[in-house]
Amino acid sequence: MKLGTLLLRNAAIGLSQLEGALRNQVLYGGRLGTNLVELGYLDLEMLSAYLAELTGFPIATPTLLDDADVALLDRLGADDAHRLRAVPLGYLGDARDAAAVAFVAPNDTAAIEHVAARLGVQVTPYIVPELRALYYLEKHFGLPRRARFLRPGRAASEGEAERRKAQPAQGIVMPPALTLEPRRKRSTSEGPDLDAVPVALSFGVACERIDGAPHREKIAEVFVEFAKGRCDALVVFLIRDGNALGWRGYVAPQAAGKPAAPKTPLEELSLPLGGTSSLQTAHDTGQPYVGPPPETARPVETRLWLALGASPEPRHVIVVPVLVKQRAVNLVYAHTVGGPLPQQLAVELTELGARAQASYLRLIRQARGS
């Protein structure tokens, strides 16, 4: 039985709520339970109980997670813990030859075997909701959650470090990583030297891949690949609660071969959709924005350029909205630093945005029918 079926059978949610969570899962990622919590249809305690009923595994309670064994945490290590979504809880029995470990996916045999090998003990899996696991992984290992799994708003200051560690009642999302490739220096101001970065993907192939994308990650990957050899930078943003959250991106290489080092990693970038900016205009109108930033001071664009290491500042940008039911769910931003954007790039990105919209709708229909 699937989680959605169990929740409907027990009247914990309604069909329209399940469909809304499935839609959000297609658009923003995360597990179904995560999206139900984010939408306010379930709380974490109820979700934990239903996950335990569904899987048959005991619940990793906040008390168990708070008191997790430090030695076991250190033995597993941050990288494996985050990759496997696993939190060692403690030893079982005096023999110390078995340990309880909280998993987001406690049925993942390969993950359990890997954790058992790292810890050198037999592992008893416990179930933990995704949002709660991410909070405790941050708490115990110090690696911040991606913005998609944090409440929206302005970036946390040093004084807000403890506020960010509050247990999330409801979440918000943000995802995968920026593909940063070395930037090259310009020898002219005539725009990008397309010969220096071969075009990775033809327009026709990009259309085909978006049309047949099996999930949202593949849609984003197509935009990133399509950018190579055509522009100096491209970012695919997720739109959540009035913020543009960095998802996937590309920065062109430079002759020196040194990797770009943005001051703000893309996955931590959250730009407000307020005031006047190219992002705001594309979001509000539902139409592509092409040209210089509309605000003379360019505060939003400047933050983005600093994060991408754009130098000199671009004169022209393009922002293509991807709409689902007349609402922007992605903004695809691109720029060149040496001159105006090629008209063909604007036309092709706009078409890819329309195809992404159609692909999202297809994936949503498939999710509802599964």
Helix/strand layout:
Blueprint: H1 3-9, H2 15-28, H3 32-38, H4 44-55, H5 62-66, H6 70-76, H7 78-84, E1 86-91, E2 98-103, H8 109-119, E3 122-127, H9 130-141, E4 178-180, H10 203-211, H11 216-227, E5 233-240, E6 243-251, E7 270-272, H12 278-285, E8 289-291, H13 299-308, E9 316-324, E10 327-336, H14 343-369
Parallel strand pairs: 2-3, 4-6
Antiparallel strand pairs: 1-2, 5-6, 5-10, 6-7, 8-9, 9-10
Helix pairs in contact: 2-3, 2-14, 10-11, 10-14
Summarize this, please?
The chain has 370 residues and is α+β, with helices and mostly antiparallel strands. Helix content is 40%, strand content 17%.
Please explain how this structure is put together.
By secondary structure, the protein is an alpha+beta fold. The chain folds into 2 domains: 3-154 and 161-165, GMP Synthetase, Chain A, domain 3; 178-369, Beta-Lactamase. It is built from 14 helices and 10 strands. The protein has helices at residues 3-9, 15-28, 32-38, 44-55, 62-66, 70-76, 78-84, 109-119, 130-141, 203-211, 216-227, 278-285, 299-308, 343-369, and strands spanning 86-91, 98-103, 122-127, 178-180, 233-240, 243-251, 270-272, 289-291, 316-324, 327-336. Strands 4, 5, 6, 7, 8, 9 and 10 form a 7-stranded mixed sheet that branches. A 3-stranded mixed sheet has the order 1-2-3. The chain is globular and about 70 Å long. The model is unreliable at 151-195 (pLDDT under 50).
